[in-house]
Amino acid sequence: MLPLRAPATTKAKTPLTLLRAFESLASSNLSQTMANTKSAIKAARKTVRLTERNRGVKTRLKTLRKRLDTSIAAKDATASKSAAAEYVSAMDKAVKSGVVHKNAASRAKAHAAKVFAAK
After folding, report:
1. Residue range 76-107, pLDDT digits in tens
2. CA distance 75 to 92
3. Nearest by Cα to 37 from 13, 18, 15, 14
């Protein structure tokens, strides 16, 4: 005879209300938006998450660009070469994840290559 399982505890589901739906949006500006449907509430939560990710990627790109500019200004060939490679790689990853448009990335990489070559 098989042992009987203990009955699973049922957790009472709380209804989806606007107050509960926007708890995760409290720290963003999107908490003032009025979402009327479940899908709109989810889209608002998703927007907050993706905006945070995009902000981090863009900040990293700016930092890498500044690092490249300072190494070029210092006329350090090895540091410039590694900084340029790191910047181009990060830019390609940003394009792949949809943070930066491919033409904008191409333009930025061409500008960096032009400055690097003129050194």
Report:
1. 889 999 999 999 999 999 999 999 999 999 99
2. 25
3. 18
